[in-house]
Amino acid sequence: MKGKRRFRDPWIKAALYLLLFLVVLSVSTARSQDLPRIPVYIKDREIRVEVARTEEDRARGLMERKSLGKNEGMLFIFDEEGYHGFWMKNTRLPLSIAFMTRKGKIVSITDMKPLDLSEHDPPQPILYALEVNKGWFAANGIKAGDVLRFSK
After folding, report:
1. Structural domain includes residue 20
2. Does residue 19 belong to any structural domain of this protein?
3. How many alpha carbons lie under 13 Å from residue 119 in its C-beta half-sphere?
4. Helix, strand or coil, per DSSP, at residue 25
5. Is residue 3 part of a domain?
6. Using the 8-state DSSP alphabet, how is residue 120 labeled?
7. Model confidence over 62-121: pLDDT tens digits?
8. What residue numbers bound the domain in which 63 lies?
9. What is the residue-wise DSSP string for 55-119?
10. Measured torsion, CA atoms of residues 60, 63, 66, 68, in degrees rounded to the nearest 10
11. What's the CA gap between 74 and 71, in Å, rounded?
12. What is residue 84's predicted lDDT score, i.e. its pLDDT?
């Protein structure tokens, strides 16, 4: 019979579907790790951040990550200032987040628990948010009023 080829063994068919699923999963996981990385500065501290500029990248954030380097984070850049809230759906890492104005001034810092669906909102409109390992801001003496810079 010419034309469609059918797999008679259900295990082969299941294995092919599993392989396809793993390929799709690895591509989407690789994409989340493929964001541009840049250094940013707060006080005398340098931190390397992945930049989440698109709606898709911001929505994915640090979901499903198993680790984050000591001086690494994710910088969320929004299209316009607003009350951009965050939650920890599918985010397994304990994080701290700094909400920042258009000029990079930190207006608040809050800690977030893994997998918590509570929304964390800034106290005023923001353009940037920076997520880092929980406690990073406190350990580095960074607080509200400090300013994030894109160059030394």
Report:
1. no
2. no
3. 6
4. helix
5. no
6. B
7. 999 999 999 999 999 999 999 999 999 999 999 999 999 999 999 999 999 999 999 999
8. 36-149
9. HHHHHHTTTT-S---TTEEEEEEEEEEE---B--TT--S-EEEEEE-TT-BEEEEEEE-TT----
10. 60
11. 11
12. 97
